[in-house]
Amino acid sequence: MSTVTNSSSHSFKVAMLDVDSSYANWSGDVNKSDFCWEFIRFDSKESLFLLLEQQVCDAVIVPCSMRAQVDIELMSKISRTQPNTIRIFLGAEFWNAAQKVKAAEIAHRIYPSTATIEEMGESIEYQVKLIKLLNRSSLQSYIGTVGCLPSPPRLYRQLTDAVDSDMADLTEISGIVEQDPAVVAQIMRQVNSAFFGFNREISDLKEAISILGVRNLRSLVLSSQLSQQFQEGRDWSEFSFEQIGKRSLLVARLAQAICRRAGANKATQDQAFLAGLLHDLGILIMASHDPEQYKKLLNYAVKKQKPIYLVEKAAFGFFHGEVAGALLALWNLPPQVVEAVMLHHVPHLAKGHEFSALTAVHVADAMLPSVNVEGECDLASSLSLRYLDQVGVMDEVPQWRIVANEYRVRMVSNL
């Protein structure tokens, strides 16, 4: 059974699972609000999935119960049924930290149980529009022509399954990674580089995993495998793809450090690390797909003194953040990671007013110098004071600069 609230000219369809009718008043609240939604409440999972199997739904809201794993599995099924639906958890404050980390990997947003339609509505509509931007035909067509895999690399999928199972130990995790010796070698090089700053050499993969954590390891595996897929051609001399990868690791580490200083939870720290590693993936994709055209874009950016993302946007109708974001969304990576990668040059387009992975990655990218580019094109972001004021973190910027200087030293000495 369902309860439907129709607006005279609705622009979004939003469904809510409300088994015990705790949110019966929301139908009236939607009608009274400025949001033009068709809002449907369902009192059973079966009736909700009957709709999802037959009609496109822009967003689904699931109130959290005491059975966290059941709710997370339900949201995962929603994601598989309609990958482009915005997924919202409501009331996860009584879940433990590990459950919240899992929830953050599948949900676009997690709100407290006290949240109202007015508080959530603008963010939901923003997320829907973001998905529509990533799914526009020109961008999807480009992704289809550049040789991107239709799903994440196998090792990343296997590690994700292991993380989700809660049963995998270090031996099993290391066994998955050891299937690709090249990935193992690259991870060990990264762990022992100055970018991580350990005071002794780490020679054992299991020890590296225990130090990094499985989620950070999984992020490094994905980054490593993507760097193997998108490589510079023989005649490419504009910038080093390897240096882009090294700088991305520093951005990831700095973004994680910024998260810790901001008091962000573990889920946000993990998201910032992965997004930092992948934030310039779109540059590698575009430069490897058509090197000559991308050289022209770099030269034009220098000549006109414009940021590279604006030049890309003028030439293609989209820029490298959107290219990578569309690919990662296709792979069903955590929504907050997709958002951070997509908007790291233009964070002010985000509607949120809270610190997030996007905040950390934008700041980290802006506070570290660009890699060397022929013609001196600057690939880094420019710090958006407008966005930082929007999020309310301007007072933190001086301290973040001090932390960033430590990473700048590592970058200058190792790139």
Q: What is the element string, with H for helices and E for strands?
A: EEHEHEHEHEHHHHHHHHHHHHHHHHH
Could you name the ranges where pLDDT drops below 50 across 5 or more consecutive residues?
Answer: none
Number of DSSP E strands: 6
Biggest sheet details: 6 strands, mixed
Characterization of this structure:
By secondary structure, the protein is of the alpha/beta class. The protein is built from 21 helices and six strands. It has helices spanning 26-32, 45-52, 68-81, 97-106, 117-134, 137-145, 154-165, 170-177, 181-191, 205-212, 214-229, 241-261, 266-278, 281-289, 291-304, 308-316, 320-330, 335-343, 357-367, 385-391, 397-414, and strands at residues 2-5, 12-17, 37-42, 59-63, 86-90, 109-111. The protein has a six-stranded mixed sheet with strand order 1-3-2-4-5-6, sandwiched between helices. The protein is globular. The N and C termini lie far apart (61 Å). The mean pLDDT is 90.
Can you give me a brief rundown of this structure?
This protein has 415 residues and is an alpha/beta fold.
Characteristics:
single chain; 415 residues; alpha/beta; six-stranded mixed beta sheet; 21 helices; globular
